[in-house]
Design goal:
Rossmann fold, binds ligand FO1, seven-stranded parallel sheet, alpha/beta, 14 strands
């Protein structure tokens, strides 16, 4: 069975690890949001791609979920001494990834090619690709004005009230070859427990992506990043509330109407199953909180089994 997983940040990366433990490299393809990408010190940083890569490579920082375990920040401190802004925590080892990516992009390689090369170097067997090779940048429109995603997320700690999200460049972007081909040829599409507004919406904004997902021939499954009315991490709950949605798995499911057949909710939200059914999706109730590797594998297995009785 060929599976396409769409992922954003830390929650998505955790499920991707579970899927990678269960599926062979030929059966899983991971496509990642690039709306969070940003340039720092002339370097192209792709935070969500890096989070997925470092997680699959077993290198990720277990405390933050992003960045590299045991990282040092000597370069960042030196940059600060030289008067540069240092609010974005780029570690010394992590910086090497961005140097290689930036150099290869400058040489004319696509972000898909660069990502494949980085995965090869990090011994990652399962293919990981960006959603597009074109420039898409998420702008967060807030009560303090519009700002680039990382400014909102890291510098402003998600404090401004969000009124709108814009995916600059998405309208003229093309799906990456991996996204296009896997939407044509996969048997199952999994929308990981990523932020629907910040991680999945940028992918849907790429022309033809939404339509291709709507007409996807296989089973479509999305996993709620909201458990018991709270986000396990990040601003998903805050955003749902600010954008006028229910702060619950039902509010998330509403973002995926027409895009998913099965919606995975945590057992704590089992009582909301009728609301999920009312949206035209089959609820799959299980433990969705992934603390250990065993949790990630178990959730992956439950999702993959869902094809059989979907
Ligand atoms: N997230 C933070 O909250 N603070 C940081 O300083 C930070 C640095 C950072 C460096 C490299 C990288 O690949 C990711 C980094 N992230 C950081 C995570 C990043 O903001 C992601 O976009 C979010 O986690 C959303 O997925």
């Amino acid at each position: 069975m060929k599976v396409l997983a769409l992922a954003g940040g830390v929650g998505g990366a955790k499920l991707c690890l579970g899927l990678a433990r269960v599926l062979g490299a030929d059966d899983l393809r991971i496509v990642v949001n690039t709306g969070d990408d940003e340039e720092f010190y002339g370097l192209h940083v792709s935070p969500d791609l890096d989070t997925v890569m470092y997680t699959l490579a077993g290198m990720s920082n277990p405390d933050t979920g992003w960045g590299i375990a045991g990282e040092s920040f000597a370069t960042l401190h030196s940059l600060g001494r030289l008067g540069m802004d240092t609010w974005f925590g780029l570690g010394d080892q992590d910086m090497a990834t961005h140097i290689v990516r930036s150099q290869m992009l400058r040489q004319g390689k696509t972000l898909s090619e660069v990502t494949s090369r980085l995965c090869l170097s990090l011994d990652i067997a399962h293919p990981v690709a960006p959603m597009t090779d074109d420039r898409v940048r998420t702008t967060v429109v807030t009560d303090r004005g519009p700002m680039p995603f990382q400014t909102y997320f890291v510098k402003m700690r998600c404090e401004p009230v969000v009124t709108e999200l814009r995916f600059e460049g998405a309208q003229s972007a093309a799906m990456s070859p991996a996204l296009r081909q896997s939407l044509d040829s996969s048997d199952m599409l999994i929308v990981c427990p990523s932020n629907p507004y910040l991680s999945i919406a940028p992918m849907l904004a790429v022309p033809r992506a939404r339509a291709a997902i709507e007409s996807f021939a296989g089973v479509k499954i999305a996993v709620s990043p909201i458990v018991g009315g709270q986000a396990l991490r990040g601003p998903a709950a805050k955003l749902l509330s600010e954008l006028g949605e229910d702060v619950s798995c039902v509010g998330v499911a509403r973002q995926y109407v027409g895009l998913c057949d099965v919606f995975v909710i945590d057992q704590i939200d089992a009582h909301l199953s009728p609301d999920i059914r009312a949206l035209g999706m089959r609820p799959l109730v299980t433990n969705t909180v992934m603390e250990t590797e065993a949790d990630k594998i178990e959730l992956a297995r439950r999702i993959l089994d869902a094809t059989i009785d979907a």
